[in-house]
Write a structure and sequence with these properties.
The complex is a heterodimer of chains A (470) and B (69). Chain A contains 17 helices and eleven strands. Chain A is an alpha/beta fold and 470 residues long. In chain A, helix 3 packs antiparallel against helix 4, helix 6 packs parallel to helix 7 and helix 11 packs across helix 13. The chains are: A alpha/beta (470), B mainly alpha (69). At the A-B interface, helix 11, helix 12, helix 13 and helix 14 of A face helix 1, helix 2 and helix 3 of B.
Chain lengths: 470, 69
């Protein structure tokens, strides 16, 4: 029974604890047991806090059974990417520079989840300062893919993807600036939601690029992502870029049928140079969606490589600006690869950076015109399944830098446009590695992509598959 | 738009107050060069009155179903 508790969905385990069918301690212990089993193989956690977690679980179990004291996730153990500040706790940001940094505030997204009564298991691995799409980390060691430990998890939310896939945490916050939620979700076989710029507060989350950063969940299902989004979304005075207004019923959207919806499929860029196994999964997914009553239509999108280039220019300058003091004072404390990526921003003139920002509005307008009448666009997250750690190690493998550029080729344009995108597991390679696809929506229309993703997951069981510990 | 070479990169970085050596400048030029190339067709073509906040205007219009400006 104990092991089975850790395999439940977020929604199901929260309900089980609320109905006293199991205790928070039993669930927390089940997660800690799995963490003890898996951590040596996949290195998903930066910090594991068993004593504190069990104490918090006991406190949750001692709380009155009903009433306002209990939140929607009362007693549910979770861990998050180690860049969400929690007052009094270390947030390493995956770096040597912040190895001992103790936050003095708590991030809004994390606080909103904690207010629902969750139990902290520890903190999850990530690329150094969220600047890397593979899962390598010089300071804390690489994170290994639970489906095959010789392969990468994707990044930068590497620990979030691995921990959710291995059922060590019921869900996890990630962040997505160039693909950092969708990449790990894709390579680890879990569901990940990149939110619209302005929907979820970034206050108290480590910054990388103020124009592109987004906060979102990785979870075991679309329903679990919808549950978490409903908790973290909405205006926040501490992040003035968040947009005020009523929020949709995201969970309710996941129960809506998808028959009659129009799903666009790009005719170029996202289908160019695909690995045959990714192409096969895309075709199979279209067949499933058609079977569920959705209508598949061709869409001709504007030049996505220009969007990708603009994304790189904006990200490079903003990241270099955040890091400038440390680039001057502590360059030796970065790993060589991260230092190199940060230095890229030093080479871009201010006028070029501002042109890249000024073009964002017209580029979004052109995209929206191209997808007029379409409810969502379906595309691969990456052109191939997870590469090996060895072949994607920039410091040691020739050609690794080019591979890394390809890893984020299909995600960067969406960050530039600020659109929501839901990565869902959609199949496996013959070697058993997950392949995912992304549903790209209109601004602030997360409800629609959650609806379509949930419809797909009702018809398939890719999201329910479990990796085996070897 | 011309992508900056190592010499220009060293000068820009120096103005920014961060020193990069010749080898680093070579690597930066090779790494960020494709982004300059990809954006070349856009650079220098934007209308005079366009400012970055247009993005938020388009985003908001799309969210409430108004005509996209």
């Amino acid at each position: 029974m104990s092991g089975e508790l850790a395999l439940m969905s977020l929604a199901a385990v929260a309900q089980a604890i609320a109905e006293r069918r199991c205790s928070s301690r039993e669930v927390t212990q089940a997660c800690l047991d799995r963490i003890a089993d898996w951590q040596p193989s996949i290195n998903a956690f930066i910090a594991i806090e068993p004593e504190e977690a069990l104490a918090a679980a006991d406190a949750a179990d001692a709380a009155p059974p009903r009433g306002s004291a209990r939140g929607r996730l009362h007693g549910v153990p979770l861990a998050h990417k180690d860049m969400y500040y929690e007052a009094g706790k270390v947030a390493t940001c995956g770096s040597r520079i912040r190895r001992d940094f103790i936050a003095t505030t708590t991030s809004t997204a994390l606080a909103r989840i904690k207010q629902q009564g969750t139990v902290r298991l520890g903190t999850l691995q990530m690329a150094e300062f969220a600047l890397g799409p593979t899962g390598h980390n010089t300071h804390f060691g690489a994170v290994h893919n639970p489906w095959n430990v010789d392969h990468v998890t994707g990044g930068s939310s590497s620990g979030s993807g691995a921990a959710v896939a291995a059922r060590l945490s019921f869900a996890a916050l990630g962040s997505d600036t160039g693909g950092s939620i969708r990449g790990p979700a894709n390579f680890c076989g879990v569901t990940g939601l990149k939110t619209t710029v302005g929907l979820v507060s970034r206050a108290g989350a480590m910054p990388l690029s103020q124009s592109l950063d987004t906060v979102g969940p990785l979870a075991r299902s679309v329903e679990d992502c919808a549950l978490l989004l409903g908790l973290i979304a909405g205006a926040d005075p501490a992040d003035p870029t968040t947009v005020a207004g009523p929020l949709p019923d995201y969970l309710g959207a996941t129960r809506q049928p998808i028959a009659g919806l129009r799903i666009g499929v790009p005719q170029a860029f996202y289908v160019d140079d695909l690995d045959p196994e990714v192409a096969r999964v895309l075709e199979a997914t279209l067949a499933v969606l058609t079977g569920e009553g959705a209508r598949i239509v061709r869409v001709d999108l504007p030049d996505q490589s220009q969007l990708s280039a603009a994304c790189q220019l904006v990200l490079a300058v903003e990241a270099a600006s955040f890091h400038k003091r440390w680039l001057i004072e502590r360059p030796q404390d970065y790993s060589p690869q991260i230092l190199m990526r940060l230095q890229n921003g030093l080479s871009i003139p201010g006028v070029t950076y501002l042109e890249a920002l000024r073009w964002r509005g017209p580029a979004l307008a052109a995209h929206l015109a191209a997808v007029e009448g379409v409810d969502a666009v379906l595309a691969p997250v990456a052109p191939f399944a997870a590469p090996t750690l060895a072949e994607s190690d920039v410091g040691n493998a020739p050609g690794a830098e080019a591979m890394i550029q390809r890893l984020t080729r299909f995600t960067r344009p969406i960050n530039y446009l600020g659109l929501p995108s839901l990565a869902i597991p959609a199949g496996f390679t013959r070697q058993g590695l997950p392949i995912g696809l992304q549903l790209i929506g209109r601004p602030f229309d997360e409800a629609m992509i959650l609806r379509i993703g949930a419809g797909f997951q009702r018809a398939t069981d890719f999201h329910a598959q479990l990796p085996e510990l070897k | 738009m011309t992508r900056p070479g190592p010499k220009e990169i060293r000068a820009i970085a120096d103005v920014a107050g961060v020193q990069v050596d010749a080898e680093e400048a070579e690597r930066i030029a090779a790494s960020i060069g494709p982004a300059f190339d990809g954006f070349a067709k856009i650079a220098g073509t934007l209308p005079f009155d366009l400012e970055p906040a247009t993005f938020a205007v388009v985003q908001a219009a799309a969210a409430i179903g108004k005509a996209i400006p």
